[in-house]
Design goal:
Layout (H helix, E strand, L loop, with lengths): L1 E4 L11 H17 L3 H14 L2 H15 L3 H10 L5 H8 L2 H8 L11 H16 L2 H5 L1 E2 L5 H6 L7 H22 L1 H23 L5 E2 L3 H15 L3 E8 L2 E8 L3 H15 L7 H21 L4 H4 L1 H23 L3 H14 L4 H14 L2 H12 L6 H17 L8 H13 L3 H14 L6 H11 L5 H13 L6 H10 L1
Antiparallel strand pairs: 1-4, 2-3, 4-5
């Protein structure tokens, strides 16, 4: 069964630079560093067959297998067939335990008459084999080499192996890198990959063969993903045999499923040639590392909460749409109930407040209507669209209540400034005139009138009216003498 988290699209804001760097590094290693390996291996194996090394080493290996029985080794040896085949050398070359005995002259000693011819041939074959990049960096099951714990996770067996790993890396990297940031993401990736390799070494110690590939590190991202998202609901794509679909699930529940699936396959299909052990170890390592990150508070919670916020915004939009539907049918009671719930849930929304105003308007409740207008005016006038909506509410209110609404001087000044921003100059001038008559000492009044006069054509009626307002109503302002002088020169 395949499960992929697919709940965050690519964007410029969350582009996973570290993930793409890892993909490029893996592709570079496969194409340019591992690229010549096949030809080098073929050359080494040709030499192995031509020199007759197989005829010497095959009986030794069969005898060694009898003393160290291993089902997997025996099955592979049986599939290789002819003892003279260079493929025997390939199997032997990946059996670290046997090679240690062979190279230590403990299986064929200097006293053996074949030794003088065998030893230089074996040394030359080892030299030819060691020219392969993979051989210098692959991690053998029965050898603990710290450098290879890192290098082996950048190697791949073939293009299909590379493509599958890189696809999963991109999908998981987008989410985990966004939650951790590039530096911490790389640390979890590399340390999680090492953890997966160590678990694999522990599980397979004494076996023949070697491990390579990024799947252990990618599995660490799976474990980290589950812990980082925790109890948040995530959207995943799943595929079981011929059935597939999208579902929402608590992220943490994926951890026992993914880990259990790998452990089941490790026990049931351990000889399938797939690194289930590295996968299981990677998932556990990534989960532990992510728990440490969360304990230290190093995760990017804003990124993690984006889905929750998006879900809340969608629920808000759906409820608002339903309330508008009720309003369209004049079902005021049902609409008001939904809108009040939205308004109390917060944060304050202009669309909700305007809809509540419409409820009071349709219900013909003067007190409720005044309260609804006040609640609309509480919201900040952040942009032109907001100003237009607020102005439309006030214009409509004046149709019902010609005397309008008693505004605080500071609020009236703010509205006048906003009306000018959207080009409603006549209404703005009216507000300024009313404000000057009732609160001429309002801070900022003279300054706004002066600023607006500078925008008008010199000598125009608007220019004169705004300067005259300063002279008549704000004579104590520092701008009054300037306004008086300009008027006298016009």
């Amino acid at each position: 069964m395949l499960i992929l988290p697919l709940h965050r699209p690519f964007s410029r804001a969350n582009f996973p630079f570290a993930t793409i760097a890892l993909v490029l590094a893996n592709v570079f290693v496969f194409l340019f560093l591992q690229g010549p390996d096949d030809a080098l291996a073929e050359k080494a194996m040709t030499y192995y067959g031509q020199t007759g090394l197989g005829r010497v080493e095959m009986p030794l290996y069969q005898q060694w297998l009898q003393q160290h029985p291993d089902k997997r080794r025996e099955e592979m040896l049986a599939r290789l067939g002819d003892e003279g085949s260079g493929l025997v050398g390939y199997l032997i070359q990946h059996d670290a335990a046997f090679l240690a005995e062979l190279r230590g002259d403990r299986l064929i000693t200097p006293a053996d008459e074949r030794y003088a011819q065998w030893k230089p041939a074996r040394s030359e074959f080892d030299r030819l084999w060691s020219l392969r990049f993979e051989d210098r960096h692959v991690l053998h099951y029965s050898e603990l080499e710290p450098a290879r714990l890192f290098s082996a996770m950048f190697l791949h067996g073939d293009f299909g192996h590379l493509f599958g790993n890189m696809l999963f890396l991109v999908l998981l990297g987008l989410l985990v890198e966004g939650a951790l940031g590039p530096g911490l993401f790389l640390a979890v990736y590399l340390l999680g990959g090492v953890g997966g390799s160590l678990f694999s070494l522990w599980w397979r110690w004494g076996d023949s063969g070697a491990m390579l590939g990024a799947s252990g590190a990618i599995a660490a991202l799976m474990g980290a993903y589950c812990v980082l998202w925790g109890l948040r609901k995530v959207r995943v794509f799943w595929w079981a045999f011929v059935v597939f679909d999208y579902s929402r699930i608590t992220a943490l529940w994926l951890l026992p499923f993914w880990l259990g699936w790998e452990l089941f396959n490790l026990l049931a299909n351990g000889d399938a040639g797939v690194g289930f052990d590295a996968h299981a170890g990677g998932i556990m390592s990534g989960a532990l590392l992510a728990w440490g990150v969360r304990a230290l508070g190093w995760e990017r919670r804003d990124f993690l909460d984006e889905d929750v916020k998006a879900d809340a915004a969608q629920a808000h939009a759906d409820t608002l749409k339903l309330a508008h539907g009720h309003l369209g049918k004049l079902e005021v009671v049902q609409a008001r109930k939904l809108l009040e719930e939205l308004d109390q849930a917060g944060p304050p929304s202009l669309d909700v407040r305007v809809a509540l105003y419409r409820c009071a308007r349709y219900a013909r409740q003067p007190a409720a209507l005044r309260e609804a207008v006040k609640r609309v005016l509480e919201l900040p006038l952040v942009d032109a669209a907001t100003v237009h909506k607020v102005k439309s509410v006030l214009d409509d209110f004046r149709k019902v209540e010609p005397q309008g609404l008693a505004l605080e001087p500071a609020q009236q000044l703010q509205l006048a400034r906003a009306w000018f921003r959207i080009g409603a100059q006549a209404e703005a001038d009216q507000l300024l005139g009313e404000l000057a008559a009732r609160a001429p000492d309002q801070p900022g009044l003279a300054e706004l009138c002066w600023q607006l006069a500078q925008r008008a054509r010199e000598g125009s009626a608007e220019w004169r009216a705004r300067l005259d307002l300063i002279v008549r109503h704000c004579p104590g302002s520092a701008l009054a003498p300037k306004a008086r002088f300009l008027l006298s020169q016009a």
